[in-house]
Amino acid sequence: MKPEDQYHRFVRWSDEDSCYIGYCPDLYLAGVCHSESEETCYAKLCSIVRDEIQHRKEQNTPLPEPKVRITKDLDFAAA
After folding, report:
1. Alpha helix locations (H) across the chain?
2. C-alpha span between 19 and 79 (Å, rounded)
């Protein structure tokens, strides 16, 4: 697996900013890019994450342990 594939990335609409904002919580504390298009924002985010990982490798800076994962709570109803 590529290092960048270990880090969860997501894009969310911001009513306050009227745009999509890209996040990678394991690498950054806040949003790192924005766009009017969800697809463009995600592409920017992926590029930023790849660049960050490459930069840390070049500087011999350890990458943080990936911790954020998507979970989905499932509600089961008894019949």
Report:
1. 38-58
2. 43
Instruction: Give me the pLDDT at residue 79, please.
Output: 29
Prediction pTM value: 0.82
- Cα angle 71, 48, 5; round to 5: 40
Q: Which domain holds residue 23?
A: 3-58
40 inside domain: yes
**Domains held by the chain: number:** 1
Residue 21 makes CB contacts below 8 A (sequence gap 6+) with 11, 12, 13, 14, 31, 33, 34, 41
Q: Which is nearest to 57 in space by CA: 17, 15, 4?
A: 4
* Residue 53 within a domain: yes
Closest CA to 9 of 69, 72, 76, 73: 69
